[in-house]
Amino acid sequence: MSRPNRSQERREETLPVLAETFAGLGYRRTTTAMLARACGVRENVLYRLWPDKKAMFLASMRYVYDRSERIWEEQAKAAEGGTTAERLLAYESKHLGELGLYRILFAGLSETDDPEIRSHLRSTYRRFQRWILRRVEEHRRVRGAAGGAEAELVAWAMVGLGTVANVGRELDLFPAGLRARLIADAGRLLLEGEVP
User: Fewest CB atoms within 10 A around its CB: which of 12, 77, 117, 132?
Assistant: First the structure.
């Protein structure tokens, strides 16, 4: 009797470690030997799961989005605390970037000369924007807010707000409390479309 193929399970087990390693070292400085050591396996095991380092990096980018989406969906299902968009702003003002996985996307920005990485990065940012867009539109329907910028622009501005907050974290530009206020206050201004 043949052994069951556990490849998908192994990918899921090693992916958080790959993502953490890429987040810490970037794409170019990370070697497959480093990735294998971090995962506690031999390199050939990783090569059975992914064809090359770039495929591991792309999978790590997908992991960043998928993990964010899972967390955001949990916030969306919460019964208390306003609209989903309001709950997300409250959550992200406290937790944005705390695991450092955004660094994978930042590392991808330095690899945009590679068409596959560029395409994947564009897709990832668009997925973030679309998810946020749906929540902005929902918020405006529920709250009856019609003013302000187009919802599509607001969603892109919120992606930008998160990026700026992570740059601030990375470069120690402002303390955690100010970063939290940036997300909460500027996010609220974007969401409501008007200065209170």
Answer: 77
Structure pTM?
0.90
Whole-angstrom Cα distance, residue 190 to residue 192? 6
- Under 8 Å between Cβ of 76 and 85: no
How far, in Å, are 22, 61, 98, 116, 136 from residue 108 at the CA level?
A: 10, 8, 19, 10, 27
Per-residue pLDDT tens digits for 101-148: 999 999 999 999 999 999 999 999 999 999 999 999 999 999 887 667
Taking each helix axis from N to C terminus, what angle separates 102-109 and 151-171, rounded to the nearest 10 degrees?
100
What distance separates the 2 farthest-apart alpha carbons in the chain?
69
Three-state DSSP class for 145? coil
Domain boundaries, the chain: 54-192
| CATH architecture label of 54-192 | Orthogonal Bundle (1.10)
> Residues 194, 148: contact at Cβ < 8 Å?
yes
